[in-house]
From TrEMBL:
<dbReference type="InterPro" id="IPR002589">
    <property type="entry name" value="Macro_dom"/>
</dbReference>
<dbReference type="InterPro" id="IPR043472">
    <property type="entry name" value="Macro_dom-like"/>
</dbReference>
<feature type="domain" description="Macro">
    <location>
        <begin position="1"/>
        <end position="172"/>
    </location>
</feature>
<protein>
    <submittedName>
        <fullName>O-acetyl-ADP-ribose deacetylase</fullName>
    </submittedName>
</protein>
<dbReference type="Pfam" id="PF01661">
    <property type="entry name" value="Macro"/>
</dbReference>
């Protein structure tokens, strides 16, 4: 389970990724929202929301806790699964880096349980949760590199050039 894997960076739209699993930077309700979460729910269609509602009705009545991950179908997305994870809101007074790292570790754990070989991640918590991109890139790459997994390719799908450049600085 600790084989070598490729880490690639792509500038683009995570909803267009042909991967076994795409990671959704979800809110704890699992019922859709803005940013990546809204885009995945819109493009993936009602099947994703239906499974998320079932998860809320069973295991996650209070919502998915920050740093945890759970999978659903990918609906109409090119991927097979969506792995939903809830990133932390950035705080200038409290170090929440361990929670952000947990999003990546838990997503890879779920990917392994599913048998996913390719996983596409967004830059978790960098949108409305205001995590500084450079720090988010450092945490993401350090965590993925240090997490044992059977995944063969981890792809970071970055929406704009500043995000891509931040990840590229920390990849080298």
């Amino acid at each position: 389970m600790t084989g070598r894997f490729a880490i690639t960076l792509v500038r683009g739209d995570i909803t267009e990724q042909d991967a076994d699993a795409v990671v959704n930077a979800a809110n704890s309700s699992l019922l859709g929202g803005g940013g990546v979460d809204g885009a995945i729910h819109r493009r993936g269609g009602p099947e994703i929301l239906e499974e998320c509602r079932r998860l809320r009705a069973s295991h996650y009545g209070s919502g998915l806790p920050t740093g945890q991950a759970v999978a659903t179908t990918a609906g109409r997305l090119p991927a097979r699964w969506v792995i939903h994870t809830v990133g932390p809101v950035h705080s200038a007074t409290e170090d929440r880096g361990a929670l952000l790292a947990s999003c990546y570790r838990e997503s890879l754990r779920v990917a392994d349980e599913l048998g996913a070989r390719t996983v596409a991640f967004p830059a978790i918590s960098t949108g409305v949760y205001r995590w500084p991109m450079d720090d988010a890139a450092r945490i993401a790459l350090e965590t993925v590199r240090g997490t044992p997994t059977a995944v063969e390719e981890v792809r970071f799908v970055l929406f704009d050039d500043p995000a891509y450049q931040a990840f590229a600085r920390h990849l080298g």
